[in-house]
Structures are given as C-alpha cells and as structure tokens.
Amino acid sequence: xxxxxxxxxxxxxxxxxxxxxxxxxxxxxxxxxxxxxxxxxxxxxxxxxxxxxxxxxxxxxxxxxxxxxxxxxxxxxxxxxxxxxxxxxxxxxxxxxxxxxxxxxxxxxxxxxxxxxxxxxxxxxxxxxxxxxxxxxxxxxxxxxxxxxxxxxxxxxxxxxxxxxxxxxxx
Length: 171
Hints:
CATH superfamily: P-loop containing nucleotide triphosphate hydrolases
Helix content: 40-55%
Number of strands: 7
Shape: globular
Number of domains: 1
Structural class: alpha/beta
Number of helices: 6
CATH architecture: 3-Layer(aba) Sandwich
Distance between the termini: 30 Å
CATH class: Alpha Beta
Order of helices and strands: EHEHEHEHHEHEE
C-alpha cells in the first residue's frame, strides 16, 4: 500500500496520514523532513511530535529521505513532508534531479506500506521571485513523479478528502 496525501497548508493532510498509518499493525516510522531554523518552526515541530504517541519512531531526515526509506525493514513508513525535503535540497544547493530519482527508486523498492504527505503549491499566483518559481516548478515535477508510484492518491482541502486517479487518454 502506497498512499499520497496532497493539499495546501493546514488542509488536514498530516492528520489524515497519521490516522491512515495507525490503522496498520507493526512499527510506525515517522520520517520528518523539517528543520528547526527558528522559534516558530521549533514550536511547530513540537506540536507535530505531540500528535504522535509512543508507538511512533521518529527519523529525522531533512536530506537523506531516500536512504531513510531504504533503511526501514518492517512496519509502516510515513513521510512528512515531501515539499520540506525539496526546500532543504534547494536551499542546500543539492542536485534536485538526482535526489528526486533516488527518492523514486526508494519508493519503488520498499515493500512496506508507505504514506507520503506533500503540499500542492501550484494552484496560486505565480511567485514573483525566481527561487519561488523554481521551487513551485520542482515541487510540481516531484509531486507528479511520486504520485505516479502511489496506489492511492488523495487531495485534501479543509479536512475533506477527494480521491485522485490517473488519467488515461482514450483513443
């Protein structure tokens, strides 16, 4: 089972991903991509940790997400969130295409239930800064590549869930 929760900020996607993961037996692995660069982010991370009970094992992987997925051999994996991972890569001037390819390979290789949370950032205005536009474009490409590998895909808005399906053109 591979599931993607896609949506905007504060849409409820992380809460739904946690609930989905907790329906499984076995170890629960939370792969955290956020880094605490300021007080607000430190508080945000603490609130997210408080939402998880002691069944969860947290793995901090702001850059090494593909490696973290590959290192887990039992239980359920929840990645939160893909766009923060991408931000970390971009701000660190890492090879985005290479790291994205490694992530897709890790997704394909894991036999474990995998749940990924990501932000949809392409539905608003065009960013006025080149970095913002580069991020929006990279996130769109990454989300498409990851979504193609997932069995179940959901768009979340205001805590409501809309199932998504792949489009197959008819001839």
